[in-house]
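anyone seen this seq b4? input:
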Amino acid sequence: MALTGSAGPVLSREEVDRELVRLSAEREAVEAALLALQDHPGRRLLDGAALTGRTEERWQVAAQGLGLLWTFFDRYSEALAAARAVRSRRTRPGSPELAELSELLRGRAVTVSGGQLPDAALGLAGPARLVEQISLAELMDRMNTWYATVLEVVNAADAVWSALPARIDLLVAELRRVTSLAGSVGVRAGSHPLGDDLARLDQQLTQLRAEVLADPLALWRPARVPAQRGRESATAVAAAQQAAAGVVDVERFDRAARELDGIRVELEQLLRLRDEADERLHQVADLLRRADATLGEARQARGEVLAKIAATEVPAVPGPAAALRDGVHQAAELRQGGQWHRLAPLLDALEEQAARELQRARQSLTEVTAPLAVRAELRGRLDAYKAMAARLGVAEDPEVMERYEKARWLLWSAPCDLRAAAAAVGRFQQALRPAAPPQDAPRYE
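predicted toks r here
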């Protein structure tokens, strides 16, 4: 839809013919644009939808403008037909015909109802009048203005309806699948936070879909200030004809999709727990069995230490963790009842506590058997010093032999006095000092 200039002086015959050709081509372009707008899928959807909010307000104006466009087009076609009729009277029109043609083509020769154009008339010619006389150029300006307004609303609604409803339906279908998945692991609304989140998402998506269908323009973010009630400048027609004159606001949809993805990840973890629960419970039980066995070994070793080592403090061996075994029993009941969402945190805690329990048992065994380890170390050092005495040729020395026998008797007697034995080993080592630098005697703490 090209824009035309204002009226000028009387046209020549050549100018009249060129103007008729131009206006005829312009009329065909206008007709094609209006037919395309009439068949626009967005326009058909707007006609049949129960609209609310911003979309209802703007479509009321745009629908009025669509009707006016066809009225203007009829006036335009009638004026152009009248000019053609005058031109066809004579092959070479005279001055009266040229003057009449100039008035028809560029003068205010088109009669329109001003009452039908409250805003356009106000914007272009002051207060509205019941009947107006305007030129073809002015009529084209008004058609361009209303066309931009109507097309912008139609394109915006169509963009939103093309972008969101189908995606919302797919997300709702995924939500139904995830909800069913949640039910299979005992996650339901009112009994688990994830179930409440799914119910809230369902409600939000239902509301969003209803809003998209009833008020699509509420989710449209235009690239410029939208045309209002036909007062758009004609220079914006090209922009209005572009399908991407703005963007669809999908933030609420994307936020819901991200939240659903997060819920699905958590549910998949519960599903993995359901598949791995038996093995993990067996591993926890195995850790506890190993801890019990280690504690039993520590208790046995403690009795041995008390019988074989004298004058030392032997730590008591702790008993099994009863609360931990109660937790294992509770976990087995939850697993039997399929309450995976409650089992998940409990099983994580049990695995950590069972590992600590085994570590505690091993530490107890180490602490209990420490005196036996010290005795074994002293025996080893005594044998090493005896071999050194033989290499030095002092093994038969009476003092050396006496100190060796004393240390050996202390280390191999029961109960063994570790402090005395350590001192005896130190004295035996000192007996070798003439041949070798002494080392500090081991001290038992």
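DSSP finds 15 helices and six strands in the chain. The chain has four domains: 13-157, 159-228+243-262, 273-369, 371-430. kinda curious what u guys think
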